[in-house]
Amino acid sequence: MTRPRPLPVDPLAEAKRQWIAHGWTDAADGMAVVTSVMRAQQLLLARVDAALKPFALSFARFEVLRLLAFSRAGRLPLSSVVARLQVHPTTVTSTAERLVRDGLVVREPHPHDGRAALLALTDTGRELVERATRSLNSEVFVDLGMSGDDAAELVAIVARLRKAAGDFADPRPHPEPL
Question: Which PROSITE patterns would you find in this protein's record (predicted)?
Fold first, then answer.
């Protein structure tokens, strides 16, 4: 993938300058944060898409496969996939249907709840997600273009934003071992 030539000025810094010049000073920092995070998401998603393209996987499909591969038995209730990926049930259902169609997962009846279904990783799905993970690790995750300290700080900042939005609660403290 050919990288475009860098712009001579940061357009997001210019947007913030314009926000302030138009009297929206109280909103300028927020606009800059939102716009910066959304642009960073575009840049990262383009890299992820390029790494997953040879595997015919979207990031959503990869996430479901990786989550199933991380589970002890390679299967999870559909409701657990929805909760852990923090997406709408319709999105997971649609993604799961494509994964089933492609032979990467199968639907199984839930052993204790006749109304629920399990998603189970097939051997083909497991092999594919392992290869796709190696690709993402080497082509994207190992070198994001920032230091490890910057990455840790960014994750911490975004985690505080997510927590304040109600995305998660801190885990309960674990008791001291006896």
Answer: HTH_MARR_1, HTH_MARR_2
Q: State if pTM tops 0.90.
A: no
Q: Are 140 and 52 in contact (CB under 8 A)?
A: no
> pLDDT: is 96 or 111 the higher one?
96
Helices 11-21 and 25-52: angle between axes, nearest 10 degrees? 160
56-61-63 Cα angle (round to 5): 125
157 has pLDDT over 70: yes
pLDDT, tens digit, for every residue of 43-90? 999 999 999 999 999 999 999 999 999 999 999 999 999 999 999 999
Which domains does the chain carry?
42-139 (1.10.10.10)
Q: Helix 123-136 vs helix 25-52: angle between axes, to the nearest 10 degrees?
A: 120
Q: Which residues pair with 120 in a beta bridge?
A: 75, 106
| Cβ within 8 Å of residue 66, ≥6 positions away | 129, 133
Contacts 24+ apart (CB under 8 A), 95-103: 95/58, 95/60, 95/61, 95/64, 96/64, 98/61, 99/61, 99/64, 99/65, 99/125, 102/56
